[in-house]
């Protein structure tokens, strides 16, 4: 039985919230060590990790509440694209994301690109401000 089309705006919000929470973990781990990362971060962190951690922390939190969803998701998508090409795609002949460890960041990139186009959904601060 297919999911009714009337659920699409609510499921868009669920996607945004879950992706935002998962993304937020990366920033929390970089700055606060929780949840603990399988790879320890160097101290002090290099500027590229500080920048990515800041985007993960701020964008993740804003995406969870659905505030400024489109521009925030666009910035997060761009950061993920850069991260994929800097840390994963350039690993020699390892073109495939399964092989180069880039599956997660690639999925984030395209989920956030979709959110940049689709918006925050029914359950978002953006939708609440539009009604007011």
Task: Fill in the keyword field for this structure.
mainly alpha, 6 helices
Provide structural commentary.
The chain is mainly alpha-helical. 70% of the residues lie in helices and 0% in strands. Helix 1 packs across helix 5 and helix 3 runs antiparallel to helix 5. The radius of gyration is 16 Å and the shape is globular. The N and C termini lie far apart (36 Å).
Class by alpha and beta content: mainly alpha
- Sheet with the most strands, sense and barrel status: none
Radius of gyration: 16 Å
**What is the chain-wise order of helices and strands?**
HHHHHH
Instruction: Show unreliable segments.
Output: none
- The proportion of strand residues reads under 5%
Number of strands: 0
Global shape = globular
Mean pLDDT rating: 93
Residue share in helices? Answer: 55-70%
- Number of DSSP helical runs: 6
Span of the ends, CA to CA: 36 Å
Tell me the layout of helices and strands.
Blueprint (H helix, E strand, L loop, with lengths): L7 H25 L14 H19 L3 H21 L7 H4 L2 H16 L6 H7 L1
Helix pairs in contact: 1-2, 1-5, 2-3, 3-5
Short description:
The protein has helices spanning 8-32, 47-65, 69-89, 97-100, 103-118, 125-131. The protein has 132 residues and is mainly α.
């Amino acid at each position: 039985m297919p999911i009714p089309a009337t659920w699409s705006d609510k499921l868009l919000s669920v996607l945004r919230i879950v992706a935002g929470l998962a993304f937020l973990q990366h920033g929390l781990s970089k700055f606060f060590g929780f949840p603990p990362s399988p790879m320890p971060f160097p101290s002090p962190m290099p500027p590229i990790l500080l920048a990515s951690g800041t985007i993960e922390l701020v964008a993740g939190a804003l995406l969870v509440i659905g505030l400024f969803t489109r521009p925030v998701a666009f910035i997060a998508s761009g950061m993920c694209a850069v991260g994929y090409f800097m840390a994963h795609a350039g690993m020699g002949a390892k073109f495939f994301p399964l092989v180069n460890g880039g599956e997660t960041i690639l999925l984030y990139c395209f989920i956030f690109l979709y959110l940049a186009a689709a918006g925050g959904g029914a359950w978002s601060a953006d939708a609440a401000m539009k009604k007011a």
